[in-house]
Amino acid sequence: MRVVIPVAGSGTRLRPHTYSQPKPLLHVGDRPIIAHLLDPVVRLEPDEVIFVVGYMGERIREYVEANYSFKATFVPQDKLLGLGYAIDVAVRAVPDDDILVLLGDTLVECDLRQFVRVGDNVLGVLPVENPSRFGIVTVRNGCVVRLEEKPENPQSNLAIIGLYYFKDVRPLRDALKRHVESGRTTRGEIQFTDALQLMLESGSRFVPYEVHEWFDCGKKETMLSTNNHLVTVLGQIPVVPGSTVRGPVYIHPSATIVDSKIGPAVSIAMGTAVLRSDVQNSIIGRNCHIEDATLRDSFIGNDVSIKGVSLMANLGDSSEVESG
Q: What is the secondary structure of 200-240 as a DSSP string?
């Protein structure tokens, strides 16, 4: 099996954090987004993991090669024309084998070994309240009968959540080639959903697989809600003498907490010091210094200094905020 993970986007909705690092390397919970994706993949023992890279792609390559031993291939995406184009770039030269596709900014709670066994072509789906914002599948008698990207009048509430399996890559490769060469776009992009609809019309059979949980890492608000879930799953409530910790939280062992209130829904990365402060529902990056401060609903990058203020903040790396 080969695994394809597109990670070429510049992460504009997560600025200022993505000015200094690619979105997959932003921390959520106890580790970077990409680690949450790859750790379950390792258990599949894939023959190869193919990363479609663009913005700061060398940083992603360095992280993967430093932390994982599987065969990794990095394919450059020259144009940001949509997910369909990204997957087309990835599969043009892969052997005729099965592939698993995971999106680089979506975390899915799912047994991947079970997922790849349920059919020849499998789509991860989940009911949503606002289906017009997603690629949507219509299902009859246990099979997908239609796929549509962000429909104005959706016929279903089953959203495609960024998890796909194909037993044979050849029909997918052919559909993507035809779709890209047609020049057709939906909402200005070459959509992967439209290529899958071409497969369906050509006789491919798709099986829907409803996942347990699905978490987006595309903007500050969803990063915070995903962080809340991840630290809840970790289930850690460390004892910090002289401070109050209200779970769920994650505090890296190298962090320093002094006379502070931490939590709930907080993650604090390595090397950070929190002194006489109150932090709730926030992500705090590496090597930060938080002193005499109150933070709520905040996403704080690395090497940030905050002193003597009360904030709901979104601060990129190396920022400084102090009371006047």
A: HHTT---EEEE-SEEEE-SSHHHHHHHHHHHHHHHT-----
CATH number for position 46:
3.90.550.10
Q: What is the dihedral of CA 232, 238, 241, 242, to 10 degrees?
A: -10
Say yes or no: 106 and 30 in one domain: yes
- What is the DSSP-derived secondary structure letter of residue 172? H
3-state SS, residue 23: helix
Counting beta carbons within 10 angstroms of the beta carbon of residue 324, is it exposed (0 to 12), middle (13 to 18) or buried (19 or more)? exposed
Question: Which residue is listed with tokens 């601060």?
Answer: 315
* Parent domain of 297: 220-322
Length of the chain: 324
Which pLDDT belongs to residue 48? 95
What pLDDT is recorded for position 183?
85
Indicate yes or no: pTM above 0.85: yes
Mean pLDDT on 11-20: 93
Indicate which CATH number applies to the domain containing 236.
Answer: 2.160.10
Parallel, antiparallel, or unpaired: how do β-strands 299-300 and 244-245 relate?
unpaired
Q: Which two tokens stand for residue 188?
A: 């200005």
Q: Are residues 49 and 130 in the same domain?
A: yes
Give me the percent of the chain exceeding a pLDDT of 90.
Answer: 73
